[in-house]
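Exercise 7. Given the components listed, write out the predicted structure of the assembled complex. Treat all entries as one system.
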Amino acid sequence: MKDMLSKQAVGLKPSGIRKFFDIVSEMEDAISLGVGEPDFDTPWHIRDEGIYSLEKGRTFYTSNSGLTELRQEISNYIKRKQGVVYDPLHEVLITVGGSEAIDIGLRAVINPGDEVLIPQPSFVSYEPCAIMAGAVPVIIELKEENEFRLTAKELEDAITEKTKILILPFPNNPTGAIMERKDLEAIAEVIRKHDILVMSDEIYAELTYKDKHVSIVEMEGMRERTILINGFSKAYAMTGWRLGYACGPREILEQMTKLHQFAIMCAPTTSQYAAVEALRNGDDDVREMSMAYNQRRRYLMNAFREMKLTCFEPFGAFYVFPCIKEFGMTSEEFAERFLAEEKVAVVPGTAFGDCGEGYLRISYAYSMDNLKLAIGKLADFVTRLRQNGK
Amino acid sequence: MREELLKIIERNSRIDLKELAVILGVEEIAVVNELQALEEEGIICGYHTMIDWEKTSIEKVSALIEVRVTPQRGQGFDNIAERIYKYPEVTSVYLISGGYDLLVTLEGKSLKEISGFVSDKLSTLDSVLSTATHFILKKYKDHGTILTKKCEDTREKVSP
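Answer.
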């Protein structure tokens, strides 16, 4: 058949992670620091609630937007954490992971030719989702000297007449960067001035190691122009349950709900019941996991200092983003050689945008024993590279 | 730092001081001082090792014994508890709310040794009214550690 495929789909670059995954999965005994999900099991009381819902026969569709009690709990949660109120009936939508919310959020607001501002390095989905929504992605390259935060100047410089929406991916995967209140205030001022929208992906909100997470929706005039995205994957170690949500102004959520309804129907019912339990009784679990991540983060930062590897101190998510420019190799070369010679997998920074060149994403969603083993190998590898004068 | 420190060494008392300082984000000397204070205050009572004796060739039998006693005037349960916990084969003694008073855990070489202890020593104590002995057949989890199986990392090796 001629023209069997969508040109737009064919035109999308395959994820840089996928390529690396294929190499790693062929190596049997490789240690990985390449995983973007928690190492903890979903806390048992949450799993138990999922099982219980199955036993009770809660195996039907929920309403398109999701269980009312879950939306109510989400609304309570955001009020408690951010001090911002969303109407659970019209301003909260349960989605299949944060990923779906990104996709339908963009499709709900984009008209052909609109520009979407995407700070990078960042999660791999924003750019393809923007393209498939008919937008023109405009990349803002974040800089290590700013601790990979988005500055008002960088934002201002990227805005044109066609700019529709800014994606704000903090706490950030892959850099671990966060945005503090002062950073967000500066951004919010530019956003208001140019009258554009924001999609704030706060999936790592519970994992910050400095002050409590601050959301852009707390800034003046931002709630009414922001699609807030969060989910259960990272905070409650529930990646496989595929459950996220979006909150935002009613007009936008109405359109998102329509897209969600036609494409998905509703998010998995079992997961929704489990999520209610997570929000009601999961605070201690989140605290425990966050404490463990923070210990590992400090361990890694110290290990990098000891091996004299440059790395800005990240305060969010569960990634560190060390700089490997001193070795005169590309990120991909470094990652491939490290894997071949030491059998440790890390993800090249370029998997998250071209400006990730010269960096590696190292995940600390691993046990301390595993981290020690892998970091020992990294120290050996780095020493060897330096001795060979390359 | 105190709570976090205790949580870490409750899981791993062999962790070295330098590492402890690094993951807590404090100086090593601060950790040393805090540990010393915790020991002096009797908050840290010991640094034991968890052993799954089942996996060795050494025979061990453990039992839980429910003990009902008559409390003594002015002493409550403390005197009788002390008389029981002084036996070295007794590994723990708890005062319990509910249907009985003391929960005693006991370790011995054989069923015979344990039943001998209960009939000769425990039951014959003046204030002991009755005992009920439960032998432990299998330990699934002890001190927060699952003994029956190792957990495997089943995640995909690389993911975004």
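Discussion: The beta strands of chain B are 61-69, 90-95, 102-108, 128-135, 141-142, 145-146. The interface with chain A takes residues 4, 7-8, 19, 22-25, 151, 153, 155-160 of chain B (CB under 8 Å).
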